[in-house]
Amino acid sequence: MSKGDIVVVGAGHGSPYSDRNEVAYDVATASENAPDAIRTAANESSSNIDHYDFDLGGSLLGNSPRRLVDAGNLRLSSTDGPENRRLIQSAITEVLIKGGTPFLLGGDDSVPIPFLAAFRDNGPVDILQIDAHIDWRDSIGGERDGYSSTMRRASEHPFVRSITQIGMRGVGSARQQEVDIAHDWGANLLTVAKVRAIGAQGVIDKIPQNGSLIIQIDCDAFDTSVCPAVNAPTPGGFQFDEVMAVVQSVIAARGMAGFSIVELNPSIDSNMISATVAARITCNAIGSLARTSISPTAQRFQKR
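User: That's the sequence. What structure does it adopt?
Assistant: Structure tokens below.
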């Protein structure tokens, strides 16, 4: 791996909830095969990276000198959350030290918690979360690093400057108190309807300049007609082209230091429809990053 590489890392497990009576369902293993499902779908839909991609207006990497490197999957456990978090954070830190841009394929939505923690020397960090839920619970069943607490843990890092969350709808684990805490912290909470009203430029305007932008996508941000194989399907989500427009526009305007995509459930996928959606939005992010002239802060990582 060399400086400037785009590095794909698979992480099938994060922090499972130990008390299943406290949650509606257990997703500790539902998304464990998602990294490979996304890779397979990417190969099916983008088997030749030198072929013309009409989403990008050229080949995947265009004329970029960047290399695309697949570092494989981390060896993680469905039961050992602390060790999973350590391994994920360590792997992403190594990518950043070497000047790469990490692309994390999850896994459930607890996987981004250690992913984000790896950027501790990369501040200021700005987060764009594209998700049906806000993930601001402090804990569920005593677990503070589960998939309902992703943005709550992110908000506790002193290097996180802003959090912009788009795609919320329906009912999730959040109660009024979590919404209030998110607002009090300064998070921008934009529903699907709000994003449609303000457009991609309106989302860009919420994100400060000259920081390390991390894009975190939960597959349930897409409408169930687009990406049905998710752990918490909720109607009324984004169409593929809406998410693509936001991802491409935001990266062009702000650059990107890291990307993660989570919550695909391959076991209930049909004809790889949902995996293909996850793969195509990941390819859009890769291609957009390859085309931006903005140097990600991750490339200026200073080892402690």
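The two ends are 20 Å apart (CA to CA).
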